[in-house]
Every structure is written in C-alpha cells, then in structure tokens.
Amino acid sequence: MARTTLAFLVLLLVNMPIDPLLAQNQSKPIPPAQQSSRTPPHAKLSDVASPDAILAATYDVISGPAGLERDWDRMRSLFYPGARLIRTEAKKEGGLHAAILTPDDFVERAGNYFKKNGFYEREIARRTERWGSLMQAFSTYESRHDPKDPVPFARGINSFQLFFDGTRWWVMTIYWADESTQSPLPPEFLAPSH
Fold first, then answer.
1. What is the average per-residue pLDDT within 175-194?
2. Torsions phi, psi of 163, nearest 5?
3. Angle, CA of 164, 40 and 47, to the nearest 5°
4. Distances from the Cα of 21 to the Cαs of 18, 27, 30, 61, 173, in angstroms?
5. CA-CA distances (angstroms) from residue 191 to 70, 124, 140?
6. What three-state secondary structure class fits 117?
7. pLDDT value at position 29?
8. How is the chain split among helix, strand and coil, in percent rounded to 5?
C-alpha cells in the first residue's frame, strides 16, 4: 500500500505543472488577441520614415477644429495590424482603469467627440529608448480646444511603442494618461530633449 501511494505521489508531482499560471492557462485557454479585420491603408512614406515622422503624423492626424472629419485612413495607416490604444482613466469608485481600444474603436469614439469639439494635441517633450527594431517613446503632450488657447485643458504622457520592420515604422501601442493633481508631470518629462 505504501509503495502504491508513493508511486502515485511521484507520478502526480512529475505531471504537475510548476507554474500555477500555466495550470490556469491549460484549463482555460486565453483567446488570441483580436486583430483588426482590415489591412491598414497604405501609408505615406513621409509619415512612417522615422520615429519623429510617425509621432508627428499621429499628433497631426487627430488635431483640428470641431466638425472637421479627420483623415482616418491616414491614422489607420500608422498602426500595425492588431495594434492597441490604451487610455488610463480614473474610476468613479476610486483607483484607475485601463480602456483598451483598437484603432477602429478610437476612430469611432474620437470621431464623435471631434464632431462637436475642437481638439489640438502637440508634443512638448520626449524621452526615448531604442534597441534594434524596438523603440519606446514617452511623449509628453498638451491638448487644447483651439491652438490659440493660452492654457491647455489637459496634459499627460503618450507612451508609444514603435516597431521598425526594415522598411518603415509602425505604432504598436499608444498607452496614455492625463496629468492630475495626484500625478503631476515631473520636470524630467517636461524637458524638450529627445
């Protein structure tokens, strides 16, 4: 009996997953990331030739007066298939929430907002790190309803993850948060150096 119990325990331990997360993943498969069903439109070479160019194009394409239809195909052309836009926002009950959007989700939400509101966003500072084809850019922004507004209605950081495929740059993710009284922008993220 003791030998049978010992043999059973050995078999159990040998076949037991080491990582509890792996065990969860085996019992509940994680669905693959939902990819955009459409191929991105062809991009202008001037928009995707460098990190500076793709960041400038991203800010340019979303900026404009109320009622002006943005060039959404231009925006979509900047994003790699399956790319995401992630906004960090405060929850009513406290804490934070991350809203995850596809480029098409963003077009729908922002398009409705831009019908009634002017929106101009510009980069005021940037900190970057690059390794090979990967680049991370912390792009500090200011948002105004009119470019002549003396004070922005929002500031924050757009965290861009960029990918160079050997031919052009792509936006993989834009993950952003607005500045708040609880999280003011520190001086190092306001310095204009790249």
1. 88
2. -135, 130
3. 50
4. 9, 10, 11, 41, 25
5. 30, 8, 9
6. coil
7. 38
8. 30, 35, 35
Strand pairing class (96-101; 79-90): antiparallel
Residues in the chain: 194
> Strand 169-178 vs strand 154-164: parallel, antiparallel, or unpaired?
antiparallel
How many Å apart are CA 145 and CA 65, to the nearest integer?
Answer: 8
Torsion (CA) 7, 21, 81, 106 in degrees, nearest 10: 160
pTM assigned to the model: 0.79
Of 167, 83, 173, nearest to 133 by C-alpha is: 167
- Residues 103-157 have pLDDT tens digits of 999 999 999 999 999 999 999 999 999 999 999 999 999 999 999 999 999 999 9
Q: Is 189 helix (H, G, I), strand (E, B) or coil?
A: helix
Mean pLDDT along residues 77-82: 98
Q: Please answer whether residues 51 and 16 qualify as being in contact, where contact means their C-beta atoms are separated by less than 8 angstroms.
A: no
Q: Which two tokens stand for residue 61?
A: 């394409």
CA 65 centroid distance within chain: 24
Residue 47 parent element (H or E):
helix 45-48
C-alpha span between 194 and 192 (Å, rounded):
7
Domains within the chain, CATH numbers bracketed:
45-189 (3.10.450.50)
